[in-house]
UniProtKB/TrEMBL annotation:
Listed name of the protein: D-glutamate cyclase, mitochondrial
UniProt keyword list: Lyase, Mitochondrion, Transit peptide
A Pfam family assignment: D-Glu_cyclase
EC class name: lyase
EC number: 4.2.1.48
Species assigned in the record: Terrapene triunguis (Three-toed box turtle)
GO biological process, one term: glutamate metabolic process
Catalytic activity: D-glutamate = 5-oxo-D-proline + H2O
Any one cellular-component term (Gene Ontology): mitochondrial matrix
Cited InterPro entries: D-Glu_cyclase, D-Glu_cyclase_mito, GLUCM_C, Putative_hydro-lyase
Job description of the protein: D-glutamate cyclase that converts D-glutamate to 5-oxo-D-proline.
Top-rank lineage group of the source organism: Eukaryota
Length: 579
């Protein structure tokens, strides 16, 4: 089955480039010569003037009518070029073959098609927003349908979005722009594929004097059988992970990328001093955090644990290096990043960031903010424009080695010393974020008393020394547990690089429109953590009077190495997972 676009020959080269620039919705099967009505590579007896059940006629961008035949346009068609484009109807048999129910087929209706707010890559006069088809798929068969459709690139390939339609700018699934409404079953999830009707929108917007397209749902049927359709040969297998429940949102990455990130999570889980940290670990917290970050546009990072309460400054050197490593990678991925810390530590952190830029650890300064929580609505006003839940300033909040509030409202270091007088109530931001749709939170910690570790507080109370007192009570959506919190930050930076160099994930991120972003790979690689960068940061911290944390001061060996050397080994092993 093929979608059809027929244009004047003067526009043909630009439209072909438009197809190549947006090959998810517009997989080009064949381009005819001017006046060529047949398409021998797709069908031996084709005649594009009558192949479609119905055509749309466009004049200067407006649809002026429909027709079941184009034979009346004999003279005009001599100077026109036909484009045959892949159609998602072709992959439905592959989905059915693996046992995935298709509700539009069951309900004997056309598939639902929607205009999104995702702009395609413009070429000359061709520009439009992506159009998608939607099929409700049972939640337990999401991975099956993704795996079945992924190789069929000429039929739009894998989905471009799974979950809440609002994330594509679609307001009402019961009112499709084209096709028929399809009724989902309980436990079905909306799954969206790029759609060839995108070409119809592009033709309308280019406002050519005369153009033809198929009417949505009335495509050209070729002689090719579905089983003979070209298959994109790839050893990669796509995997699906839920990254948010409110709004519902899934992401996709290759099996190889997922395996590498799980290895990162295992590496940082080494437990110096055997303090019981292994009991706090939950699989895939690093993966889900980084998938969520990959989709985010704006990220808030907070750090600061005043362990040395009798010293000035009271901060420890675990936290800031990890925060800066994450910020550097997020900046290279062109995301907005801010760091939030205590008001009393603003000057210190400003100097650390300035020195980090000077030393080449950061390319540009990271904006620095503080939060005091002066009023009941302070957190919402800080996180959202004018406190409006529909306009959040940040998509994700990450705390790394940040003092977390215990059940009694105090903040404790590992030795049960109350340090509340040194800590601003940044926890309020994480608590408020739970009520803001689309905002995700992550806590990175190595002792259970850090912000966000409330997700594993029962395990902290049971397995960590003084855990019944020091356990953080504030929960994050994801809790990354590391032997040293900085390692968690380094792992996040490495995992983000792995995801963004994964072709399957990259395609899903850009909704299969535009070109792959792998040309930016060198820039991302330059933002990766390294032993040299860590050494520079630690020297900067020492110069500003920041002391080692409790973990780093322990007299111990790990795998026969003095603990000081373990930092270098961990960084080296993390970087070994980089493709």
């Amino acid at each position: 089955i093929a979608n059809v676009v027929i244009l004047h020959k003067s526009l043909a080269d630009d439209f072909e480039k438009f197809c190549h620039a947006n090959d998810g919705p517009l997989p080009l099967l064949y381009r005819s010569k001017p006046g060529e009505w047949k398409c021998p590579s797709l069908s031996s007896n084709s005649d594009i003037r009558t192949d479609c059940l119905q055509y749309r006629i466009y004049e200067y961008g407006a649809c002026t009518g429909t027709s079941t035949s184009l034979k009346d346009y004999f003279d005009q068609l001599k100077d026109m070029v036909t484009f045959y484009l892949g159609c998602s109807f072709s992959f439905e048999k592959a989905a059915h073959k693996v046992g995935v129910p298709l509700r539009n087929v069951e309900q004997k209706c056309n598939v639902s098609m929607y205009k999104t707010d995702m702009p395609c890559c413009r070429v000359a006069s061709f520009c439009c927003n992506l159009v998608v088809t939607m099929r409700p798929i049972p939640e337990d068969q999401l991975e099956a349908v993704v795996e079945a459709t992924y190789p069929l690139k000429d039929s739009h390939g894998a989905p471009v979005h799974i979950g809440n339609p609002g994330l594509l700018g679609i307001q009402n699934l019961s009112s499709p722009d084209y096709g028929d409404p399809v009724q989902p079953h309980p436990q079905d999830v909306p799954v969206f594929w790029a759609c060839g009707v995108t070409g119809v929108e592009a033709v309308s917007n280019c406002k050519s004097p005369l153009a033809f397209t198929h009417s949505p749902g009335c495509m050209s049927i070729t002689a090719l059988k579905n089983e003979d359709a070209p298959v994109h040969n790839s050893k990669e297998i796509p995997m699906v992970h839920c990254i948010s429940q409110n709004p519902l949102h899934y992401s996709i990455a290759s099996e190889t990328a997922v395996r590498k990130i799980r290895e990162l999570e295992s590496l940082i889980g080494i437990d110096p001093g055997d303090r019981g940290m292994k009991h706090l670990c939950c699989q895939d917290e690093l993966l889900k955090t980084c998938l969520s970050l990959s989709h985010a546009r704006s990220v808030l990072i907070t750090t600061g644990f005043p362990t040395h309460f009798n010293h000035e400054p009271p901060e420890e050197n675990d936290g800031p290096p990890g925060a800066i490593a994450m910020a550097a990678m997020l900046q290279s991925l062109e995301k907005d990043v801010v760091i939030v810390t205590d008001q009393r530590a603003m000057g210190l952190n400003k100097k650390i960031i300035e020195d980090g830029v000077q030393q080449g650890v950061l390319k540009t300064p990271v904006p620095l903010l503080s939060y005091q929580g002066d009023a009941a609505e302070s957190a919402l006003m800080f996180l959202c424009e004018n406190g409006n839940l529909e306009r959040p300033r940040f998509d994700q909040l990450i705390a790394i080695e940040r003092a977390g509030m215990a059940a009694d409202g105090n903040y404790y270091n590992a030795r049960k010393v109350n340090i509340k007088h040194l800590v601003d109530p940044i926890d309020e931001l994480f608590l408020a974020a739970h009520n803001i749709p689309g905002v995700t939170t992550t806590g990175i910690g190595d002792g259970g008393n850090e912000l966000g570790m409330g997700k594993v507080k029962e395990a902290v109370r049971k397995h960590i020394k003084n855990g019944d007192v020091i356990a953080c009570d504030v929960e994050a959506d994801f809790a990354i547990v590391a032997g040293v919190s900085n390692w968690g930050g380094y792992a996040v930076a490495c995992a983000l690089y792995i995801l963004n160099t994964c072709e399957i994930h990259d395609r899903y991120l850009r909704k299969a429109i535009g070109f792959p972003r792998l040309s930016k790979k060198a820039n991302w690689a330059s933002a990766l953590p390294s032993i040299t960068k860590e050494e520079k940061l630690l020297k900067i911290l020492i110069q500003h009077g920041v002391r080692s944390g409790v973990t780093a001061s322990l007299e111990m060996e790990v795998d026969g190495l003095p603990f000081y050397n373990v930092h270098s080994v961990i960084i080296e092993k993390l970087l070994e997972q980089i493709p």
